[in-house]
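Standup notes
- HV: blocked on the assembly model, inputs below
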Amino acid sequence: MLRICLRKNGSYSRPLFAERFNRLLSTHQTERKLQDKVALITGAASGIGKATATKFINNGAKVIIADIQQQLGQETAKELGPNATFITCDVTKESDISNAVDFAISEYKQLDIMYNNAGIPCKSPPSIVNLDLALFDKVMAINVRAVMAGIKHAARVMIPRGTGSILCTASVTGVMGGMAQHTYSVSKFAVIGIVKSMASELCKHGIRVNCISPFAIPTPFVMGEMNQIYPHLDSRRLVDVVHNVGVLNGANCEPNDIANAALYLASDDARYVSGHNLVVDGGFTSFKSLEFPAPDQVQ
Ligand SMILES: NC(=O)c1ccc[n+]([C@@H]2O[C@H](COP(=O)([O-])OP(=O)(O)OC[C@H]3O[C@@H](n4cnc5c(N)ncnc54)[C@H](O)[C@@H]3O)[C@@H](O)[C@H]2O)c1
């Protein structure tokens, strides 16, 4: 809070006031954790990526939204204002990722943060005996191969500068088995492995590599699947169904929770954190309950 410095006669000292005012302003500026940083976020036209782009911009960053959805991506960039730029990018094409990274350099002369966030769900049959390998390859191309390509091209421009923060979106389904179809789950286990392997090399260059594992969030990604499973429910009920699977009383997992995790990992607050998987799940994957029957239910 700003306290005005009063002289004995009741007037305030202008230099002292100005000094205090400037100090207050600079405090606000240090709260902008990504001031003058440049971030490239894949899959930022909606959901987690969009929430993160918003958070990064509010913290002083310039953000390049790289997404396959051209119209939505452009609308998102417009909505986020002059510090957001859209570039069309299909992450399954290495040339598109390479172009997006080069765009960051030509537009802003640097790339500080690369967030490999784009991903797709997998609507495959649940049993391994029915595994659809063509679908497996498609999911891997986006959820895994594109993450490798994103890190490859980010490293290309970050290594010469000796600094950078690379993020990826994994999932709780890559922390424990049994929470999603095998193909999707395996793809997210791979992301967590990629982060550890890449961190081992890139630490020598001052580049940190981390991932975030979100719990279920009713973004378009999840709502599409939920609509197919529960076609008789309206979207409000579907959101409730998603939220009700969480274990933390009093809170639901929202895109902004992941954006907060991304802000931490991208910023200097996490300057000594690398190779880490930040699980944002309200404790869900930390425990299992032993559901013993009540004594009067056992003979
Ligand atoms: N929503 C959840 O419950 C949840 C939980 C854990 C992890 N995740 C992960 O979070 C990430 C973001 O998903 P979301 O929930 O925000 O969903 P979303 O559908 O809102 O966003 C995904 C974005 O990725 C883009 N995209 C898809 N394919 C692409 C491609 N080939 N090239 C470029 N962009 C592409 C889409 O256009 C979309 O804008 C994904 O990696 C997903 O696996 C989501």
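- HV (later): unblocked. The pocket of nicotinamide-adenine-dinucleotide is lined by residues 42-43, 45-49, 67-69, 89-92, 117-120, 142, 169, 171, 214, 216-217, 219-222 (CB under 6 Å). Strands lie at 38-42, 62-67, 84-88, 113-116, 164-169, 207-214, 277-280.
- Next: hand off to the docking folks.
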